[in-house]
């Protein structure tokens, strides 16, 4: 037996009639009659090569049909049909019409006579349904034909527009398009941690036969398992991630979208897609059948799917997916705060962990002081379990709180950036002499453009009603380093971290009238057309410095 494939294009009036009367359910007399009518039009279709995987696009509630012919040639003709839904469940069936090989051959060439057509139309129905399926699993039908026949595949999506892939072949001896799954295709979870899950699965027989052309790819997500790689890619695209076709299989980094991250290490390719619906990871690890997924979130349920992929054809087969929940993160250690003592906390931005501090009040009025050193920090203060303060801080921030003796305060700190942040914290009774100096209304440094010269600049800053010491420092910088200098500056570090050559001057001043508590300084001896970074440090009675916001000024090129 020899197999010929035809794409069938019905005339418009027949197609509309077919849309109205055909269904995937068991054939009725009308559907059989319609199929018999279609028989005499199939020679209008285009030939499709045997053994090719075809993508079929389905419109909601509109059936789509494809035909193939088995002609006489040998005693038995085996064939297989594999259908892979790429999204929603579909309905599909296989119908067969027995006919003579001579008529099928003539129909394919378009030279049948009207008497033969009329004779077949009047003949008793020879149409039967040999397979019916509804769902979203990958299904394979294996059949055997001992006579010439016309077969029709009919597909229907009742939920929404979708697409599927269909693979048909009569060559069952030279190997399958799809990699072979083991007898037990389950994925076993053999280890669970706070941020890790270790998986293992049985080797595919295809790996042992064609190791160089086969690899395993793992999909990790927080929504559900996928029954095919095709379905997984469709879901990722629909979430807005725009996953390029067979990206994890073809290993094409130049196709990455901005919201994708590719990590290549130790012969493993990881692609991380980020979207509002969660993170989706694709990891291709060659032929290893044990893998530990790292950097997961604690106390989170993840779904794991393994696909065995043929790198030559991009065809894949899916193992039975599994899921696991990572362990809860242990309670963070709580550090006790002591009256008047200043501590500096470094916060990990990548892990986004809370750092907890606890204080038991020995006075009714207390004051928390936070000095931001680097990055951005979110502060959450609770008193006996109830929130009393919650905000992102910048610079210096005071919280004056009232309560009862022995009230318990819990301070939780977290970096709001992916980079590390750091902050100094102090708690003290309200009447306690503060370690930090009294601060002006603003910590900004102002420069006067009209007073700039080729060799000098004039800056000004606010003071307070308390006599304090102010020290000015300058640093020459390149234009391409400005952002980095401002970003990486440690606002808690004092002049001890600066080179002696950077010191310009120190001065004392104050004014009882805050409207006049401002000072100016002209820094001379600068280079022409050069960028400088200026810093002012304020020292209080305790000697702990507070750094004003750095100011970048450029001297004039021409004077």
From TrEMBL:
Keyword annotations: Glycoprotein, Neurogenesis, Repeat, Secreted, Signal
Gene Ontology molecular function terms on file: heparin binding
Cellular component GO terms, alphabetical: extracellular region
Signal peptide range: 1-17
Gene Ontology terms: biological process: nervous system development
Keyword Signal appears in the UniProt entry: yes
Residue ranges of every copy of the Fibronectin type-III domain listed in the record: 179-316, 437-545
Record keyword Kinase present: no
Record's subcellular location: Secreted
Job description of the protein: Secretory protein that plays a role in various cellular processes. Acts as a chemorepellent acting on gonadotropin-releasing hormone (GnRH) expressing neurons regulating their migration to the hypothalamus. Also promotes neuron migration, growth and survival as well as neurite outgrowth and is involved in the development of the olfactory system. May also act through the regulation of growth factors activity and downstream signaling. Also regulates extracellular matrix assembly and cell adhesiveness.
PANTHER family given in the database record: NEURON-DERIVED NEUROTROPHIC FACTOR, PROTEIN NDNF
Record-given protein name: Protein NDNF
Lineage: Eukaryota, Metazoa, Chordata, Craniata, Vertebrata
């Amino acid at each position: 037996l020899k197999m010929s494939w035809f794409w069938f294009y019905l005339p418009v009036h027949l197609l509309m009639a077919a849309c109205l009367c055909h269904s995937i359910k068991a054939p009725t007399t009308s559907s059989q009659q319609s199929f018999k009518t279609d028989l005499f039009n199939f020679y209008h279709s285009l030939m499709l090569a045997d053994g090719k995987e075809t993508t079929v696009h389905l419109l909601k509630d509109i059936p789509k049909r494809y035909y193939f012919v088995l002609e006489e040639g040998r005693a038995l003709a085996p064939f297989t049909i594999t259908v892979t839904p790429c999204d929603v469940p579909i309905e599909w069936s296989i119908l067969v019409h027995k006919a003579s090989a001579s008529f099928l051959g003539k129909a394919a060439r378009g030279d049948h006579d009207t008497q033969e057509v009329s004779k077949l139309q009047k003949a008793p129905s020879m149409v039967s349904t040999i397979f019916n399926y509804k769902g979203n699993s990958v299904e394979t039908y294996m059949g055997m034909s001992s006579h010439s026949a016309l077969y029709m595949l009919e597909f229907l999506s009742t939920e929404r527009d979708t697409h599927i892939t269909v693979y048909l072949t009569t060559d069952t001896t030279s190997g399958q398009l799809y990699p072979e799954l083991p007898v037990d295709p389950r994925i076993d979870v053999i280890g669970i941690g706070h941020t890790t899950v270790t998986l293992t699965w049985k080797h595919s027989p295809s790996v042992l036969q064609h190791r160089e052309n086969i690899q395993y790819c793992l999909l990790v997500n927080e929504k559900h398992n996928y029954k095919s790689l095709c379905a997984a890619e469709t879901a990722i695209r629909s979430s807005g991630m725009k996953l390029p076709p067979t990206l994890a299989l073809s290993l094409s980094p130049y196709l990455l979208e901005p919201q994708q991250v590719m990590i290549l290490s130790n012969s493993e390719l990881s692609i991380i897609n980020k979207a509002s619906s969660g993170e989706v990871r694709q990891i291709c690890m060659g032929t290893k059948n044990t893998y530990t997924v790292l950097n997961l979130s604690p106390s989170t349920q993840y779904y794991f799917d393994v696909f065995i992929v043929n790198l030559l054809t991009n065809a894949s087969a899916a193992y039975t997916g599994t899921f696991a929940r990572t362990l809860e993160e242990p309670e963070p250690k709580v550090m006790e705060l002591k009256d008047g003592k200043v501590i500096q906390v470094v916060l990990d931005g990548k892990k986004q962990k809370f750092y907890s501090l606890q204080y038991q009040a020995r006075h009714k009025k207390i004051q928390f002081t936070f000095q931001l050193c680097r990055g951005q920090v979110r502060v959450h203060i609770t008193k006996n379990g109830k929130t009393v303060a919650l905000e992102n801080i910048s610079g210096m921030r005071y919280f004056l709180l009232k309560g009862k003796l022995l009230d318990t305060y819990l301070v939780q700190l977290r970096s709001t950036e992916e980079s590390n942040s750091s902050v100094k914290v102090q708690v003290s009774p309200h009447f306690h002499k503060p370690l930090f100096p009294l601060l002006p209304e603003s910590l900004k440094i102002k420069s006067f453009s009209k007073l700039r010269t080729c060799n000098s600049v004039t800056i000004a800053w606010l003071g307070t009603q308390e006599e304090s010491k102010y020290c000015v420092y300058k640093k020459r910088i390149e234009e391409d380093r400005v952002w980095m200098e401002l970003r990486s500056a440690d606002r808690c570090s004092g002049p001890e971290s600066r080179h002696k050559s950077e010191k310009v001057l120190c001065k004392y001043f104050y004014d009882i009238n805050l409207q006049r508590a401002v000072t100016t300084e002209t820094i001379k001896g600068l280079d022409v057309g050069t960028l400088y970074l200026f810093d002012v440090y304020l020292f209080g009675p305790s000697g702990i410095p507070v750094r004003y916001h750095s100011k970048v000024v450029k001297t004039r090129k021409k004077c």
